[in-house]
Amino acid sequence: MGLYEPDKSFAIDTHFHANVFRRPHAKRRRIATQLSRYAAHLDGLCSTEHAYKQPLEAYDFLCEMVGHYELDLTTVPGVENISREGVEVIQLFESRAALVSALKAFPAFSWSIHDAVSLQSPDCVTILPHPFSPSGTGIVSGIGFDRACQLLSHFDYIEISNGSFLEVPLDALPRTKFKDQVEKTTQFPEELMPLGVGRSYGSDAHRPRDINLFSSLVKGYDESVFQALTMRQDLKPILRTIAEFRAVGKISRSLLTSSIEYMQKQDYKLTNNGDGTRSSLAKRARSRILG
Ligand SMILES: [Zn+2]
């Protein structure tokens, strides 16, 4: 295990779907071209294709894309697996071979979320994505609040915020159960966070242009991304700038969702109106993004 270098931070999207399943060759080429641009500011990208959408093929596609465009980008093999109750869990691995074995050992819908602890091994890092997702794929909506809370400590990471929910215009929604679920998917309640479990942030993008939120990982120079992830770190959120949200047509001048506004107020924000308290870590990440 290498020494931690607090100065060396690594921008990584911990939840990304290449989404090339059953796509024709021309479409894949377009995705690769777009991704080479939208992932240019990242150091790492976790391949977390759905278990029922050929996750191995998705990982191979990302590796090929990185090679073709000669990007300085580490790809992490993984899968967004799904239990027989319909609850999703991300599994990340050190190697392609480890992903292959896990796909055999835990096929989609074959295992129970109640046995989530059986997913754990030194060769696998687990992330519980979008626990409060309004769809049943979040653990809370899938098996109920009380049972879900008992299982939270069985994962290496909990996804504190999911990028695909950040752009929901919460302010425009009436106070409903749905709104509550979306709020807690954009910001997992701190009081539910079990001790010793890491925090992660990922875009859950299914298109390159949707990469909007990712994590800052602390990694030693001689350490692999996977080894750094096994430390159950409290990853820090890095958010696309408001200018960039607008540039890809995600939010109009008049619409700034309360979730994005909230994230912008976090310590590691990437806004253009600095307040002097930003850490050097975020500053460097920012210059990497803006530069
Ligand atoms: Zn996902």
Automatic annotation (TrEMBL):
Segments for region (Disordered): 271-291
SUPFAM superfamilies in alphabetical order: PHP domain-like
Biased composition (Polar residues): 271-280
Top-level lineage group: Bacteria
Extent of Basic residues compositional bias: 281-291
Database matches in InterPro entries: Pol/histidinol_Pase-like (IPR016195)
Protein name, as recorded: Uncharacterized protein
Organism the protein comes from: Cohaesibacter marisflavi
Taxonomic lineage: Bacteria, Pseudomonadati, Pseudomonadota, Alphaproteobacteria, Hyphomicrobiales
